[in-house]
Specification:
By secondary structure, this protein is mainly alpha-helical. It contains 19 helices and two strands. It has a two-stranded antiparallel ribbon with strand order 1-2. Helix 18 packs across helix 19. The chain starts with a helix and ends with a helix.
Length: 544
């Protein structure tokens, strides 16, 4: 464990980048393959509507981009810097991108999920969905650029593009006013995260330093954590998405994965001295409570898609807590597990005997056992904030138990009756490539690979998970809510809290509008004079 901590300390120091290496070229190649494939499909959609090999083109481009990721290892770490924008007195920074072990792990996870979404689309009802594949490839390219962003300017521009895309899509498909309100609130929460990141840049500039993600100033560390927590719906606790009915498997999984990954990358850039603050103990307790809530709701969700928002909150809470405990490598591990293990489960839509057993690799990746993807998840110098660890382990146990139970629900999945025979052979590859990536990141490619971690905490969590699975079949409260009249995918009490706040805001707005209409109406002058007389009377009475 001490060896891992020393490794983390070395990784957290300023990285000496090599600007002239070959790695920047491969970043551009990977993004270029994704974008060019999307453009080709878009041209085919309008020029040759009857083109029969659109899926093969999309899958081939995604697979080529996935393979190009291995060549990044040849020249890391490296950095791409573009010329400064004009005027330079306004734009002190220009877009830049950083390639190191952490950004590679994030980018590799994003590309893997994008490849899997396209391959597994052969088993979904809307196959072929050419425009959906264009969206998946484009969002994957944006995600790769976001997780390799080298400064706040680059990341904010990419965040804004993703947030606007999702907000427009949500408002297009959402019909109920209640869900449209949640879409607006969710968008506002993400915008708040953007503003916090910009504020971190302003704080750094006030101290005479430019904020970049290779060597951020210590004072900006806590701002980075809070910005990521806001975008994930952890602080303040809320469901970060308006509805899961509009975006199910496929493009919805890509959108959720890219959005989560591009937010969590901030946690891996937090300096070790940047979390020292009097409010940090309170923050970690709030984060632990959010992780517990996400784990409990995930455990009781009727299916993986209904519980997807709670998986993101629960696993995101573990990542934020790791960053607050001074473990950015552990935050990276939890973040990649959120994208990969969750992505594998969310994309399973057809029954396959070996595939259902292989999904347990996702549970292994999130178990924090030695040499797993999240082996570094519970490492912390001197047991920082030890009082929050039991709550965080409880959240991990519920997340693992819910994951294992949902991975065993093969009877609820469809078969291949309506698909061609080749789809039955191609579809499992899309799931296996994610599971292979989970194993690979546990052994290769970044600072958190080949680690034993805190095996005592990991073993304790694994035993508790087995006990919870045994207990779940005997205690009704631990079983998913199956009644047709229960809104299992939503948090009733959480909705009630935010609905109360929303109604209070509406009442104040109506009162203000009424007051304004009275003053601006025909009798406005009379009311103004009356208020002026009353004000003068109060002043005269207060004069000695």
């Amino acid at each position: 464990m001490s060896e891992l901590y020393n490794t983390r300390q070395r990784a957290a120091k300023r990285v000496k980048v090599k600007p002239d290496t070959i790695a920047p070229m491969f970043l551009l190649i990977t993004v270029g393959i994704l974008i060019s494939t999307a453009l080709i499909l878009l041209i085919l959609r309008f020029a040759l509507p009857s083109f029969r090999f659109a899926w093969l083109t999309a899958a081939g481009g995604a697979l080529l981009a996935w393979g190009s990721m291995f060549f990044w290892q040849a020249g890391m770490p490296a950095q791409i810097r573009f010329p400064l924008w004009q005027p330079e007195n306004i734009f002190r920074q220009s877009p830049s991108f950083v390639l190191d072990g952490i950004s590679w792990a994030f980018a590799f996870s994003v590309v893997t999920v994008g490849l899997s979404v396209i391959v597994t689309s052969v088993a979904r009802e809307n196959f072929p969905g050419l425009l959906g594949w264009v969206g998946v490839l484009a969002m994957t390219a944006i995600g790769v650029l976001a997780v390799t962003a080298g400064n706040p300017l680059t990341l904010v521009l990419l965040w804004a593009a993703m947030d606007l895309t999702e907000f427009i899509a949500q408002m297009r498909f959402v019909e109920e006013p209640r869900l449209s309100e949640r879409a607006v609130i969710s968008f506002a929460s993400r915008v708040t995260g953007i503003l916090i990141l910009l504020w971190a840049g302003m704080v750094s500039a006030a101290e005479g330093a430019e904020l970049n993600f290779l060597s951020p100033p210590p004072r900006a560390g806590l701002y980075l954590v809070v910005a990521a927590a806001f975008r994930l719906g952890i602080l303040p606790l809320h469901l970060p998405y308006a509805s899961e009915s509009s975006f199910r498997r496929g493009f919805g999984t890509t959108l959720r994965t890219v959005s989560a990954g591009s937010s969590l990358i901030l946690l891996a850039r937090v300096p070790l001295s940047g979390i020292e603050s009097p409010i940090t103990p309170y923050l970690i307790l709030l984060v632990a409570a959010a992780a517990l809530y996400g784990g409990w709701m995930w455990l009781r969700s009727p299916d993986e898609l209904a519980g997807r928002p709670f998986w993101l909150i629960g696993m995101g809470g573990l990542a934020v807590a790791a960053a607050l405990r001074g473990n950015p490598i552990g935050a990276t591990a939890w973040s990649c597990a959120l994208m990969l293990a969750g992505g594998a489960l969310f994309l399973v839509s057809a029954e396959n005997r070996w595939q259902d057993k292989a999904l347990l690799i996702g549970a292994w990746g999130a178990s924090s056992l030695p040499f797993s993807l999240t082996a570094s998840g519970w490492v912390s110098q001197g047991g920082r904030f030890w009082y929050a660890v039991p709550f965080l382990i409880a959240a991990q146990v519920m997340l693992l138990a819910g994951y294992i139970r949902m991975s065993r629900r093969a009877p609820q999945r469809s078969g291949f009756e309506n698909q061609p025979i080749w789809a039955k052979n191609v579809y499992p590859f899309g799931i296996y490539v994610i599971l292979f990536t989970i194993l690979l990141l546990g052994w290769f490619g970044w600072e958190g690979a080949l680690q034993t971690g805190n095996w005592v905490a990991a073993l304790f969590a694994a035993l508790l998970t087995l006990f919870l699975l045994w207990l779940a079949v005997r205690v009704r409260a631990l079983n998913p809510v199956r009644a047709h009249w229960v809104r299992s995918a939503e948090a009733a009490w959480l909705d009630a809290v935010y609905q109360t706040v929303w109604e209070t805001y509406r009442a104040l707005r109506r009162l203000t509008a009424l007051f304004s209409s009275v003053l601006e109406g025909e009798s406005g002058v009379m009311w103004t004079l009356l208020f002026l007389v009353l004000f003068i009377t109060f002043l005269i009475q207060g004069t000695p």
